[in-house]
Automatic annotation (TrEMBL):
Key words, A-Z: Endosome, Golgi apparatus, Membrane, Signal, Transmembrane, Transmembrane helix
Membrane topology reported for the UniProt record: Multi-pass membrane protein
Protein name (record): Transmembrane 9 superfamily member
Sequence similarity: Belongs to the nonaspanin (TM9SF) (TC 9.A.2) family.
Main location class: membrane
GO annotation, biological process: protein localization to membrane
Organism: Dipteronia dyeriana
Length: 596
């Protein structure tokens, strides 16, 4: 039965990678696509506008009174693109392959009314940018500029200028488009300082240039900024800092805890009653393997933690295989949705199998809790943020149809797979093998000093682990909430492994301290001590926001909401890792006592 389960799991992983790989090929550049002949029409899609300092606060391009086609056609988008806030629409720009437009080609001429002038002026004050896509290549530009002319005697106050000309510089190699840039010409502006109607003439130009960059590497340009030597040195400094902390902790465990543990085991083997009284953790051998309180909830925590850990491992595999890369519209969001859905089997199996080790009934409740333990708070957060985005009219607001699609995916894919995993876990149940027999009446826990209680252990475990990833965490937040591109997947993966090792080592040390104080309720404490790193991560995110240039209620809400969801996921992941390590350690030492 176990062999069959492993085979089914392998088939599921292969199927998942195949589906996502196929989807990635459809979304990414391929040498067999994107081939054009001279004069071929290559559509340019306008996407969104928004303040530069608030990455979550983006609006549809035509929310500002730009020149727009009649009627406006919307590009069909994937689920990931919608979740990412992309809203691609048609534009009046005509950029035909290898056809230059050197003059001021007229886009449109329109009369801006007073309220439209005020909207453009406010966009310039908020430092708005625009984003477009041409042959799946992103390009950006600014809406306008502000000039402070108070130094001139004849002028007073600031001047607000709207850019009216966009210059497109396109680069090609053979019959492929390699790169495109948008340049807002500061010599073509219109003054919007005064209120009132104004006539504006919008123009553009196109220049084609040959390049030797191959088509297969055209996306490397967007990750080059994150691969500078200085940034690499900072990344490697972070890795070295983490390795030093690991070495110090390993030395501490070996020299202090393990040495003391060996002495305890030696005293037990001698059998001297006077010395045996000093071995506090041996006295609770009849209680240490008593099943944790709230067994159903504890099993659900293990199930969701294992599911999230599996999901992150698969994401790393896809990143190393090149399926996930910067500005691949929506593929990361799509991957998160479908990988979490398909790995529901792991969550259901882990929850049910652990629950059935202690009880043959009630495993259904554990599976049910595993289905809502993470998705429940996540859905509440998403709906709350979606309401805020709707009130702002931002592109982050999910359409009603998208919410229905997500609900259908959860109902007809996630729930059945979760139930399937639970049934497999129930069928493959096994009894919990404890090295020592458990007493019927639990032993009373003696009074604990402040440094032996859970808050102190959580602070110590979280602080030490967080100190090893603080530098790398800053780069991660800068990628998520800024405009830096995180492309060094190897560094992120290495830091993730380091964090797992730190969590495991700290879990062993803190569990030994707890057992030495004759406190046998270590199950839940190991979860909280391991997951406490996520609490420090969330606190650091608040410091990151305060030091950033982000502002506004919507941006603050999205920042706190999604960071809370991310840190909650890491809390469950590292809590499970901590518990599994503690369980192995506790089994080992009490098995050694039994053998003695």
């Amino acid at each position: 039965m176990a062999t069959k389960l492993v085979e089914n799991s392998c088939v599921l992983v292969v199927f998942l990678l195949t589906v996502l790989g196929f989807a990635a090929r459809l979304a990414s550049s391929s040498p067999y696509d994107h081939r054009y002949n001279v004069g071929d029409h290559v559509p340019l899609f306008v996407n969104k506008v928004g303040p530069l300092n608030n990455p979550s606060e983006t609006y549809q391009y035509y929310d500002l009174p730009f020149c727009c086609p009649d009627p406006i056609s919307w590009k069909k988008e994937t689920l990931g693109e919608v979740l990412n806030g992309d809203r691609l629409t048609s534009a009046l720009y005509e950029l035909k392959f290898l056809e230059d437009k050197t003059g001021d080609t007229l886009l449109c001429q329109k009369k801006l009314k007073g309220d439209e002038v005020a909207r453009f002026r406010q966009a310039i004050v908020d430092d708005f940018y625009f984003q477009m896509y041409y042959d799946d290549l992103p390009l950006w530009g600014y809406i306008g500029k502000i000039e402070d002319e108070r130094w001139m005697l004849s002028e007073k106050g600031k001047k607000y200028y709207l850019f009216t000309h966009v210059q497109f510089d396109a680069f090609y190699n053979g019959n492929h488009i390699i790169e495109i840039r948008a340049f807002s010409d500061p010599n073509h502006v219109v003054d919007l300082t005064a209120d009132g109607d104004i006539n504006v003439k919008f123009t553009y130009s196109v220049f084609w240039n040959v390049t030797s960059v191959p088509f297969e590497t055209r996306m490397d340009k967007y990750s080059r900024a994150s691969a500078f030597a200085v940034h690499r040195q900072i990344h490697w400094f972070s890795v070295i800092n983490s390795l030093v902390i690991i070495v110090l902790l390993m030395g501490l465990l070996i020299l202090l805890f393990m040495r003391r543990l060996m002495n305890d085991l030696r005293k037990c083997s001698i059998g001297d009653e006077e010395e045996d009284k000093e071995v506090g953790w041996k006295f609770i051998h009849g209680d240490v393997f008593r099943h944790p309180q709230n067994l159903a909830l504890f099993s659900a925590v293990l199930g969701v933690g294992n599911q999230l850990l599996t999901m992150i491992c698969i994401l790393f595999v896809l990143a190393f295989l090149g399926f996930l890369y910067p500005y691949n519209r929506g593929l990361l969001c799509t991957s998160l949705v479908f990988i979490y859905t398909l790995t529901s089997v792991v969550g259901g199996y882990s929850a049910a199998s652990f629950h059935n080790q202690f009880s043959n009934t009630g495993w259904e409740k554990s599976v049910l809790l595993a289905g809502i333990l993470y998705l429940g708070p996540l859905f509440v957060t998403v709906l709350t943020l979606n309401t805020i985005a709707v009130s702002y009219g931002a592109t982050a607001a999910l359409p009603f149809a998208t919410l229905i699609v997500i609900l259908l995916i959860y109902t007809f894919l996630c729930v059945p797979l979760l139930a399937l995993g639970g049934v497999i876990g129930y069928r493959c149940k096994s009894e919990f093998q404890a090295p020592c027999a458990t007493k019927k009446i639990p032993r009373e826990i003696p009074p604990l000093t402040w440094y032996q209680k859970m808050p102190c252990h959580m602070f110590l475990g979280g602080l030490l682990s967080f100190s090893a990833i603080a530098l790398e965490l800053h780069h991660l937040y800068a990628s998520l909430w800024g405009y830096k591109t995180c492309t060094l997947c190897s560094i992120l993966f290495l830091m993730f492994i380091i964090l797992i090792l730190l969590t495991a080592m700290l879990s062993v040390g803190l569990t030994y301290i707890q057992l030495s104080a004759e406190d046998h309720e270590w199950w839940w404490r190991s979860i909280f001590c391991g997951g406490s790193t996520a609490i420090f991560m969330f606190c650091y995110s608040i410091c990151f926001y305060v030091r950033s240039t982000m502002s506004g209620f919507m941006q603050l809400s999205f920042f706190l909401g999604y960071n809370a969801a991310m840190c909650y996921a890491f809390f469950l992941i590292f809590g499970v890792i901590s518990f599994r390590t503690s369980l192995i350690f506790v089994r080992h030492i009490y098995q050694a006592v039994k053998s003695e």
